[in-house]
């Protein structure tokens, strides 16, 4: 129970990787704020945490809307752990990229975590402790045809991690990135992650628990001297 007595906000924890991160943080003793747009899936994640004896509550948010982001930041003002996980991934050849899809990816993947962190991190700085984990992707470091906008948003996230680690480090607040490889979730079907998994050194896609384990490690005191890092959890794809 290395996180007992602490609180955590996980964006996009109504499904997929974020849901599993919320479950694992709660198992480690954290009280978790589950968030997303879906009240129904939010309630289901909270119920799953409570069924294991953990503590959680749901705060609805639309991360494409800055007012909504502001309300989430107020509701989660004093968390010890912030996991910027929610993400939109829409793929298109560059010549066919639409403006609404471009805007949605930058709003949810970059603008929302930026302003959420801008509200929450200064409170961590005041208290002299806190851990922020940003979820990126292996596609931020490799050329993946059709993923131009998505990869660019996550490359921005990688950059934010480095800047924030520099800004908040002297106050004891750590900021790191986890870059997952292909991971089976409700947003990433087996048709999508299966062939990508074959391109990794491990020749398979990941399960959500393998990504969440890395996130919880970086959030925890076990990673107390780790900041500014980008941890690939991608079956070795970056070195393949
Ligand atoms: N799966 C992969 O292969 C993979 C690989 C590399 C990186 N990643 C990254 O890992 C993260 C999670 O991916 P995933 O596969 O677990 O995705 P997922 O199953 O599609 O879940 C996405 C989560 O983000 C939330 N979300 C999306 N748009 C939102 C919005 N406008 N406002 C609030 N919440 C929103 C969703 O909640 P609601 O539906 O309730 O709004 C949901 O909880 C993303 O950042 C993704 O880029 C995934």
Automatic annotation (TrEMBL):
Keywords of the record: Oxidoreductase
Broad enzyme group: oxidoreductase
TM region positions: none
Gene3D superfamilies given in the database record: NAD(P)-binding Rossmann-like Domain
Domain of life: Bacteria
Residue stretches making up the Ketoreductase domain: 6-198
EC annotation from Swiss-Prot or TrEMBL: 1.-.-.-
Family indicated by similarity: Belongs to the short-chain dehydrogenases/reductases (SDR) family.
Protein's name according to its UniProt entry: SDR family oxidoreductase
